[in-house]
Prior knowledge:
By secondary structure, chain A is an alpha/beta fold.
Amino acid sequence: MSFDDFKEGLGALLEPSAVRPTDFGKRGYSLQVTAKRDQVEPIARVAREADLFLEAMTAVDFADAFQVIYLYNAFGAGSRVRVRVAVKKGESLPTVSTVYDAALWHEREVFDLFGIPFDNHPDLRRLLLPEDADFHPLRKDFGKVHGVRSTDEIYGEPTA
Amino acid sequence: MASQLPEPIVEQTYYLNMGPQHPSTHGVLRLFLKLDGEYIIEADPIVGYGHRGHEKMAESHLYEQFLPNTSRMDYLSGLLFNHGYVAAVEKMTGIEVPPRAEYIRIVCAELNRISSHLLWFGTYIMDLGGFTPFLYAFDDREIILDILDRITGSRLTYSYCRFGGVAKDVDDEFIRATREFIGRLRSRWEDYHNLVTKNVIFIHRTKGVGVINRETAIRFGCTGPVLRGAGVAYDIRRAEPYSVYPELEFEIPTGAAGDAFDRYMVRFQEMEQSLRIIEQALERLPEGPIRGRAPRKVRPPKGDFYFAVESARGAVGFYIVSDGTGYPYRLKVRSPSLSNLQVLTETLSGTLVADTISILGSVDIVVPEIDR
Amino acid sequence: MADKKVAPGPIVHVAVLEDILNLFRANSLWPMTFGLACCAIEMMAAGASRFDLDRFGAGVFRGSPRQSDVMIVAGTISRKMAPTIVTLWEQMPAPKWCVAMGNCAISGGPFEYDGQYAIVPGADLIVPVDVYVPGCPPRPEGLIQGLLLLQDKITKGEKRNVLRRFQRGARSAA
């Protein structure tokens, strides 16, 4: 199965503690990966070679940093992977659009709504908001929100 | 001696703005086309004209309050979005759903899928220049809307699914009307095929047009009929079975070439499969309660969750980050149309302007779902 | 005599002709094909086989604003779309009318909440609106009733419409 190739590739790339299996029935993904900033693109390459597709990409704003989430999926049962990368406020992230064309728009959306820039993105414009907008609406300091949390509060404890 | 020849024709690329108000862009999509004569060099779909800020809205609304929003994202298959959101929250919180409610959800969701495909069929052929099939399709679609209207109280923007069940029980009249509709729609296939599928003009406008092959579909993350048209039998209902789909028999229709005609045929066969699902579900519809035990105010535990269902346009997923309160910390909707539309940046280049309509229609997008 | 105030108006009054013209206008409304969101589907349904808007002379949906005389604002007006709607309205030849279809076009509907950033809450903040059709979305019967109301309004020669932008105390559009 291609998904096993992907797991093998990840094992060669990351340290074992960064890759954790999860209960698919409970979480909706069967593998969670905590990546570092420079591992984002290699992971995408491994995924691409293993015939996975980039299902979605988003970010979550926490008090300490942004968490950018990549969801990869294979055409099989219960083979979704959640990759999580921490990005400090004001920092950028390398693009994966060199590997997946789908990332071109997903990264534009994340840039639009969160203001996270992506290095080497060929066309980093706003996607949804008007071009002259000067705010990033999904940040927690914009509009009405119910509390700002830190990353550890939600992703901290080991999840089964 | 001065040349008698005329001045050479200056060749230049020019730009064409299609939309945001254009009869065939299905809502408010703007296509920025770079043209060389009649051929498209580059296409840049500009979205966001229907951006309503659903995801920000979720952060200041309770889980229950956000439910009506889901059907307004993809208003053509609102019940499927409803189902996806409700099932996601149920999975997170561990709410049990009684079997009768699950079956009712499936029947309504599949009816909704058919109505979405019928509307697509009507408008697609209307975009290609045939007005009559539009009237035929809407005729059938109105019957579905009548059936759903009786149960859900709404024609388009349903809020029928509830945490732990559905809002209202179905009655014998619903079952009778649905069975009658199945027979009626089956008898209409022949009309549709005679009217459209065998039409030479239609075949010429769709066969070999807008080819999206497997490799492209994977690179862009396409799902739904676009991916299945390329020959990949991937359907969330089978790959990640939810609700009662594992108990029901149905096939996943696929195409081969991945052109507009294949996507058309895939949707047609999907409607037939949906009818099969409805038939089986009605047969097995168990007696019992329609609402399980759900807390008054849903408070999912901390953590992040993802749940996907198959909507009429592809895999729709809800990624919810919960901080343990009644408000979602972050709610991301993975919209199938976003990825399916993005493919056009590649597929449209090199095609004729006139084929834009055929390709765009065959991908079947709902703009507010992309923009959210 | 000279100091008597004369109401401003056309120099030549052809009231009967104007009435007849209004009758014609009312019975051949040409709406613009222009959907923004969910309501557009109900607008299409109103024009399709069961409801058949053509019975009231309003079934000729035109793709171009230059050929139409009713703009049905069917759906949520996003900030990004609002300037385009104004342009479309200005492209339409007078006499022209506007129907705000659905709660979003009336007041922002469910998307108007504390802290929203994405939409213009109400079509009447950017274009003058003649008829409001409430609902989320309104049923096709509702739209038909709205158009019938508009026909009544035209045949009576009424010129009243609402542009909230100029009203005192109205919320700002942007």
